């Protein structure tokens, strides 16, 4: 369902065709994500994963914690890009030098399974609030779609605004696809600026 929505929105920006290979990998990615979601549901039903359901200030804390955990990706991504695993796994996603919306879902099955398993592990260790999870996943899809549009939807004057200029914009992620040694961040460029991998 989310994939269909992303691809429909993406069609507004990208008019070209998708290849059979891209569609095939997209389907596999979504099957794996569905399996991970079902496993998470099963773990929740059996009390292994606990999810907070109340409304409190904890929602913001949980949201920022999950965002922070996933924005530490610059150190990981840089080290990862130097390894055999990158060449064998993440390289598939970077076949798209000029990304388009479907490339958000063009991931190696090992990578899809790895990210999903990491989420489940975090949920087993800490009882995140359900609203924080939904907000985080929504923002993740928005940034994922924006990063793979192939165009910059934000006007230049907005991109120069104090807080916006530190976000991982479409142009920022597009540059990463063109030069895999720079712009490792996804939500923000702050870590890249600190570690001098910003371009």
TrEMBL record:
Q: Lineage from the top down?
A: Bacteria, Pseudomonadati, Bacteroidota, Chitinophagia, Chitinophagales
Q: Where in the cell is it found?
A: Membrane
Domain of life of the native organism? Bacteria
- Might you report a single GO cellular component term? membrane
Name its GO BP terms in alphabetical order.
Answer: lipid biosynthetic process
> Which GO MF terms does the UniProt record name?
iron ion binding; oxidoreductase activity
Q: Which organism is it from?
A: Chitinophaga pinensis
The main location is: membrane
**Fatty acid hydroxylase domain: from which residue to which, for each copy?**
83-197
State which residue ranges cross the membrane. Answer: 22-44, 51-70, 118-151
Q: Which InterPro entries match?
A: Fatty_acid_hydroxylase, Sterol_Desaturase_Related
Entry protein name = Sterol desaturase family protein
Q: Which Pfam families does UniProt cross-reference here?
A: FA_hydroxylase (PF04116)
UniProt keywords (A-Z) are: Membrane, Transmembrane, Transmembrane helix
